[in-house]
C-alpha cells in the first residue's frame, strides 16, 4: 500500500476535501507554472520552454545578442508597437461602425464623447506610426549587419512580407474614418489598382484582358467607392491583415530560433570581453560532441568551437524586452497626450482636398505616382520589393556577417552610395520640377513612352546600374547589395521629404507652405 | 565462425531515410495529389467570391437645366455631379471632370482644368496639357430635351466629334 492510499484510509473523505480546498490556491499556482519559481538556472529554463508564449525564446542567449548595438532591440520594438495597436484597436471596435453614413460620426463619438476614447484612438494612431518607423529601421539594421545570410534568406523574405502587411494595415486603417483623407485615399488607391489599364489601354487590349479593372472591382466590391468598399477595407483591417501579420510574425520568430538565435560574427566569442557580472556564463570547451544524425544539421554542441558564452534568457533578455515594451508604451502615450489623431471634414465625393496628401509613409509613392500611375504605383514598388527580397539570394558571400556595414567597401562604400543616391534623386526631381516632363514638351506623346521613361523609372535604372557597377568594381555581390539598398533608402527619404514639405496645391513645387496660393 | 558486425556501408538506408516511394505508396501519393488539387480548385473557387457579383449600378443619367446666362465655353457643373457642361457655337457638350490619372475631381481654371492630386492639367476641351494623366477627359453623351434642358449620361463615353447636342 503506498503512502497516499495509507493516508487516505486514515482520514475521512470530508477531511480530505477540506484539505484539498485549503491547498487549492497553491496547487493551482503550481499547475499553472509547473516549474516553480524561476530561481535557479534550471527553473528559469523550464519557465521559458514550458510556456506556450515564451517557448519561441531560446532559454539561453549569446552575449553578443544582448549587446544593444547588435539590434537596438528594433524587432521587439516593432512587436511592442504592434501589440499596442492590437489592444487599442480592439477597444476602438466597441464603438466604430463600418458604414459610410455613420462611420464618421462614430469616430467623432470616440473622439469627443466616449470616456478615454480620444486617448485610445490617439495611441492607436501613434503606435501604428511608430510601428511603420520601427519596422523600416529594423529592416535597415538587418540589412547593414548582413543578417540575411545563409539559412536566414527566407526569413528576410518573410520580413519583406511583414513590411508590406504593416503598410497595408496602415493604409486600410486611415480609410475607416470616412473623412476627406479616407475617401480620396480609397479613390486613389483603387485607381492605382486599376492602373494596369494605363498600359492595356495604350496597347488597345483592355477589352480582352483587363487586369486593372478586375483588381479595382475586387478591392471596391463595386464600380464606385461606397459602402462595399468600406466593408472590405474594414474586413482587411481588423481580420485578414492582423491574422496574416500574426502568422508571419510567428514564422519569423520561429525561424530565428531555429537558426540559432540572432546572427553574430564568427569570431564573436573572441571579441567579447569576459563577462563582468554575477551570472555564470557557459564557457567550458565541450569535451564531447554528439551526433544527432538525421535530426539536426552538424553536431551539437558544435565541434571545434570555443566557449558558448551564453547567459540565461530569463532575466537578461526578458528584462530588456520588458524595458523596450515600456519604452514603446511611454513614447506612444506621450505622443497621444500632446498630438491628436487628425480627423478631416466628412468625405465629399465632389471636391478633393488641394493638395490631397497621403500619410507620410506614402508620400514618396505619391511623388512617384505623379510621374506615372502604373509605374509609380505598381511597377516601381514591385521592382524595389523584388530587388530587396532577392538580395540574400544574389549575395551569398560570408564576409562581414553580423557586423555593421560589414563586407567589402564597408562604411565608406555606404557613405558614397548614400551621396550618389541622394545626388541622383535630387537631380532628377530638380530637373522635372524645373523643366517638366515629356507630356509638357510634346502633348501628343504616346502614353507608353511616358510609362516607360519617366523620372521614377530613370531613377530606378540609375540605381540598378550603379549597383551593378559596384559589383564589378569591388568584385563582390555584397558591395552591389550595399549600394542598391543605400540608394533605395536615399531615394525613399528624398521623395518622402519632397512630397511632405515641398508640394502644394495642384502638386506644384513650393519652397514652403507659406507660399501656397490661397484658394 | 565468428559473425562480423555489419559495417555502416552495408545498411543502405535507415528508417529515417526511406526508399523512394513508387512501389509502396501509390495510395499515399494518390491521396496527396487529390488533396492538393482539391485545395487548389477550392482556392480558385473561393477567389471567385470576393469579385463583386452584385453591382448596385443605378442609372447615371440625370437631367440638368443650363442657366440662360451661361457664357460660351464657360463650364457649368451641376451640383453633386462630376460633369462639366459647355455651350459652344454649335450646341452643348459635356466633359467628365474625373481625372483620368487616379480619379480626383478636377477644378476648372483659366486654362481649362487642373487636378489637385498630382498636377495634371487639361485644356478646355479635355486634352492633356501636363502631368501624369494618360488620357484626355472623356466626352459624355448629352441630349437636348427642350431649350435649356438636357439629359446627360455619366455612364456613356462618346467620341469628341459626335458630342454636341
Ligand atoms: S488624379 Fe489627377 S493628377 Fe492624379
Q: Could you describe the 3D structure shown?
A:
The complex is a heterodimer of chains A (519) and B (165). By secondary structure, chain A is mainly alpha-helical. Chain A is 65% helix and 2% strand. Chain A contains 22 helices and 4 strands. In chain A, strand 2 and strand 3 (299-300) form a beta hairpin. Chain A is globular and about 105 Å long. Chain B is of the alpha+beta class and 165 residues long. Chain B has one helix at residues 26-48; strands at 61-65, 83-88, 91-96, 107-109, 112-114, 121-123, 128-130, 139-146, 149-158. In chain B, a hairpin with a 4-residue loop joins strand 6 and strand 7. The radius of gyration of chain B is 34 Å and the shape is elongated. The A-B interface holds A 184, 187-188, 190-192, 195, 198, 201-202, 214, 217-218, 220-223, 226, 228, 232, 294, 349-356, 366, 369-373, 376-377, 436, 439-440, 443, 447, 450-451, 454, 505-508 and B 14, 16-17, 50-52, 55-57, 79-80, 82, 101-105, 107, 114-119, 127-132, 134-135. Bound molecules: FE2/S2 (inorganic) cluster (FES). FE2/S2 (inorganic) cluster binds at residues 99, 101-104, 115, 117-120, 131-133 of chain B.
